[in-house]
Amino acid sequence: MSDSTHLVLSLSCPDKPGIVHAVTGALARRGGNITESKQFGDSDTGLFFMRVQVETTVPRLELEKDLEALAGDYAMEWSLDEVGRPMRTLIMVSKEGHCLTDLLFRARSQGLPIDVAGVVGNHEDLRAVAEFYGAPFHCIPVTRETKEAAEAELMALVESLGVELVVLARYMQILSPALCERLHGGVINIHHSFLPSFKGARPYAQAHERGVKLIGATAHYVTADLDEGPIIEQDVTRVAHEDSVAALRAKGQDVERRVLAQAVRWHTEHRVLMNGHRTVVFA
Amino acid sequence: MSDSTHLVLSLSCPDKPGIVHAVTGALARRGGNITESKQFGDSDTGLFFMRVQVETTVPRLELEKDLEALAGDYAMEWSLDEVGRPMRTLIMVSKEGHCLTDLLFRARSQGLPIDVAGVVGNHEDLRAVAEFYGAPFHCIPVTRETKEAAEAELMALVESLGVELVVLARYMQILSPALCERLHGGVINIHHSFLPSFKGARPYAQAHERGVKLIGATAHYVTADLDEGPIIEQDVTRVAHEDSVAALRAKGQDVERRVLAQAVRWHTEHRVLMNGHRTVVFA
Amino acid sequence: MSDSTHLVLSLSCPDKPGIVHAVTGALARRGGNITESKQFGDSDTGLFFMRVQVETTVPRLELEKDLEALAGDYAMEWSLDEVGRPMRTLIMVSKEGHCLTDLLFRARSQGLPIDVAGVVGNHEDLRAVAEFYGAPFHCIPVTRETKEAAEAELMALVESLGVELVVLARYMQILSPALCERLHGGVINIHHSFLPSFKGARPYAQAHERGVKLIGATAHYVTADLDEGPIIEQDVTRVAHEDSVAALRAKGQDVERRVLAQAVRWHTEHRVLMNGHRTVVFA
Amino acid sequence: MSDSTHLVLSLSCPDKPGIVHAVTGALARRGGNITESKQFGDSDTGLFFMRVQVETTVPRLELEKDLEALAGDYAMEWSLDEVGRPMRTLIMVSKEGHCLTDLLFRARSQGLPIDVAGVVGNHEDLRAVAEFYGAPFHCIPVTRETKEAAEAELMALVESLGVELVVLARYMQILSPALCERLHGGVINIHHSFLPSFKGARPYAQAHERGVKLIGATAHYVTADLDEGPIIEQDVTRVAHEDSVAALRAKGQDVERRVLAQAVRWHTEHRVLMNGHRTVVFA
Question: GO biological process annotations for this chain's record (chains A, B, C, D) (predicted)?
């Protein structure tokens, strides 16, 4: 189909019969061809979730109008986007560069659909790598005194740059509850443990002390409740008695960058839907 | 829904717009509520695949009539079944019991939806375990001379017992092309290597000789082309230089039984659809 | 070597120069040939750990005398055993049979070096499977009132049967601190979570509630501090949003039995050494 | 130990009693303290392998003299190095930068002990990233006509730069048998399949065509026999029916870079020993 666009619709709503038929009807009436789709009804929460990719010759805006009417009937939360459209993303970092380097490399060479609007660091350490990949670097130091001003500066950037997604790529500051609220559902953090184990500070030291045989990392949406946000992705790697805390950190970095990149990819492909404080991931 | 049944419909057909809408329309007109569904269109083969679980108060047979009409319009291959209905299964074995024991245990205690119609062995070794789990054991020895008669006996069992699925749980005989053809799509084999590596005999000895660092197992549908049937599931486990061929075999058995059980579960839940010589697995 | 025995020596002691030389000297003077060995010095705890397999024509008892002298000089904790000698094992269960069935099958068919002295259940449910595999089954019910008497009965069994290892194969009772102390280092438990996450009761329900993307199991030595004993082995498996608590339990059982069997194998092969509240595992 | 050095000795020789005692005796006489050690005797090949890390105040060169005498007695192949000494490494690439970027990042930030003497590309594409990380880039194009000259240029670089290890980080040219011979044991390649499956060209297309459920990567020493060299490390990742060949390639790149980095780390830490056409890896 030469003039077709490839769109992705994702939605959630209270479950009742007929949703898929209604939605696919709206798509079919516009000649849409479904290429991939997944649905799930959660009997615990009574919510229904759907993600559908559709090829159509109808412009996205017209389809949006059709869907608006439908969304009202079913009390849907929904989004319609073009498949593969890079999402405007702000990456926040401190001093460790493994996640940042990985995201920038994947965006350039592996089709990770992010358009890096900028990199914000509370230290200068990672300016060079950001700029090497063509991403503007903003140093916004944070102290107890300047935290409020720093967050205001950050929000100004988010707005002026049209940021859709903020990624905390080993950013070692805690966002204020107000900021968490304001950016709700739009901030992904990577925590360097297999949550809920080893919350808070120095998880690798905690893991070493406990003598676990696997260490992990967790990507989650940021909420005001630290390390308690909805989990998007987790993975682990094997460690052994020989491994010092430093060795755990080095091995863990591999997991961190892989898990974060996976979560960012799924989010930008509209595969992650909120289900209370959990997520539905149509991987 | 007190009087509802939970049905699973799986289908494949040439891809064209409107399939999902048409199918879900047929379900919606009968008041069906979709609980889980996945679809996939393969641009390589031009085929469309769909699996949908639906809760409905309409009897399965009535829904089947609705679907028959639809199936004609879209040239569908399809099946409709009750979710969780145990499938009549014949398990074939030789001397090693790890896969058989595992399948029987899962059927009894872990909800693997198979109804073991019988166990066929070409040796007597595994009679006791079959009978412990209440499965009738049939010893059908096979030699070059008796192979044809043995296969006839097997087919007679398949028919008299109403067998829907045959599982080769480390059955060390090769089925004749005629039998493969006759049971096409209804026989799952576990091969003790990560195919296409190490086809044929003694895969663990081959793996040891090559010095690989992971060994695996492959569950696939049986076709006349040995070890070349459509793959349903594979997995691997790590091995080391200390591991003898015997150690590889012991480690590999864990992977074999896990992979086979997973493949059988997916098959009986109608999650596996043929896509040429590959499979679509709606896991 | 036709008349040789294959022995395994494992030891730990305060670290200082010359240990390996002294130990291998004692072995060399007896014509011993080392087939596999691992050593590790932990700079945190100042302890040194060693495991060595040796082929020798000298009887085990003579070698023991040589080692006793050495052990005094270096303040060693040590053991000498025959490679592959089955360890006298008591398995304790409640109602779920996946771990028990797995251990019994592996002991019979896969060379797991345990000699099952008996199976103790606080319910009758698993008598049949124990007896199928030839293991005497003892039902010792436990209530708050009978707990003390039940533990006395258990200890009497441990002593009369010459039990070297007790395996809690999903035994749903908590051992008293006194019993934990008495059997210190000789009891392995499988906990159905990836510790330290989800300690205590109903870990799969906890995992479902938190929305984790992997679930796990942990085999550890039992201490008076519940779920805090030294970890021997852990593993995880992937779960998804579709998975109910029951589905987590079914998927988790696969991990539980695999992790427990691995821990038991390593323990019986003298590969696990205590390093404070952590373990050294010479896998 | 303030003036101590931390050394690593690795060796292999025909197996016979007394090797460990003799080696550790040489170390003990110099006051060496063993921090980590592993040994293995292969009954198939009759070879014995040993790797030992030792802290000592004696200079490396003196210890080497002691070992030379011993090595003669036991017909050892051996090496003695400082723990953590970066190995002079030449990285060869074509156009895909995932492995190169990863190795350079790990060398800078994660303690991968390589000292990148230079990067050789047969295209200019990766000059920028090499130079960003401070590695001199040499473009040596290769055509059928210039292959001999190109290899001569490469060998000149290897010699002038004091290169100890050559890493083919997705270098898409085949080295001549003569060059393979000359650099024997000093060249590591990453092949983008789980060998021995899918040798040769376009492994991801082959994997897609076969419908496998896992794809992998293999790091191996380069020999004149293409894709048949001794395997150092392998790993896999899960793929699904939705994955196009391009998706397999993207997913596979993660495995490639992880497997290659692991193999390079083990090689530079002297953990990999040749055992015929297989390897012993003291991980």
Answer: 'de novo' IMP biosynthetic process; one-carbon metabolic process
Beta bridge partners of residue A119, listed in sequence order: A91, A137
> How many CA atoms within 13 Å lie on the side-chain side of C3?
4
CA distance D217 to A120: 35
Size of interface A-C (CB pairs under 8 A): 79
Query: Is residue D196 within 8 Å of residue D240, measured between CB atoms?
Result: no
| Per-residue DSSP letter, A241 | T
DSSP state of A35: E
pLDDT of residue C110: 84
The distance from CA B197 to its chain's CA centroid, rounded to whole angstroms, is 21
Record: contact B20-A19, CB cut-off 8 A: no
**Minimum-distance CB partner of C41 among D17, D36, D38:** D36
pLDDT for the residue A1: 43
DSSP category for residue C202: -
Cβ atoms of residues B173 and B122 within 8 Å? yes
CA distance A106 to C141: 59
Question: Which two three-digit tokens encode residue C189?
Answer: 């438990």
pLDDT in tens, C6-15: 999 999 999 9
Q: How far apart are CA D154 and CA D183, in angstroms?
A: 11
Q: Is residue D29 a contact partner of residue C18, using CB atoms and an 8 Å limit?
A: no
Respond yes or no: is residue C3 known to be catalytic. no
Whole-complex ipTM: 0.94
CB-CB neighbors (< 8 A) of D241 in chain B: 40, 42, 275, 278-281
Do B194 and D211 count as a contact with CB atoms less than 8 A apart? no
- Are B76 and B70 spatial neighbours (Cβ–Cβ below 8 Å)? yes
Whether residues C39 and D41 touch (CB distance < 8 A) is answered with: no
Place of tokens 């412990």: B132
| Residue C118, beta-bridge partner list | C90
Calpha distance C186→B117 (Å, rounded):
43
- Chain D touched by B63 (CB under 8 Å): no
Which sign, positive or negative, has the C-alpha torsion C103, C106, C109, C114?
negative
Residue ranges of the alpha helices (H) in B116-163?
127-132, 147-160
Q: Where are the domains of chain B?
A: 5-82, 87-281
Peptide bond into D196 cis (omega under 30): yes
pLDDT of C2 over the 60 cut: no
pLDDT at residue C1 in the model: 44
Other C-beta atoms lying within 10 Å of the C-beta of residue C65: 8
Measured N-to-C along each axis, helices A19-29 and B19-29 cross at an angle, to the nearest 10 degrees, of: 140
Cβ–Cβ of B40/D242 closer than 8 Å? Answer: yes
In words, the CATH class of domain C87-281 is alpha beta
Give me the helices (H) in chain C, please.
Answer: 19-29, 60-74, 98-109, 127-132, 147-160, 177-182, 203-210, 245-268
Chain D residue closest in CA terms to B278: D211
With contact defined as 3+ CB pairs under 8 Å, the chains touching B are A, C, D
Candidates C276, C270, C277, C278; CA nearest to C50 is C270
Question: Could you report the per-residue pLDDT of A40-57, keeping only the tens digit for each?
Answer: 999 999 999 999 999 999
d(CA B258, CA B105): 12
D27 to C21: CB separation less than 8 angstroms, yes or no: yes
* Residue positions counted in chain C: 283
Residues of chain C with C-beta less than 8 angstroms from the C-beta of A195 = 197, 210, 212
- A194, closest residue in chain C (CA to CA): C197
Collect all residues of chain C within an 8 Å Cβ-Cβ radius of residue B254.
258
Integer Cα distance of C273 and C43 in angstroms: 16
> Which of B94, B110, B249 to mutate to test binding with chain C, by most C CBs within 10 Å of its CB?
B110
Cβ neighbors of D26 (< 8 A, separation 6 or more) are D63, D66, D67, D70
What is the rounded (10 degree) CA torsion for A188, A192, A197, A202? -120
Contact call for residues A229 and C211 (beta carbons, < 8 A): no
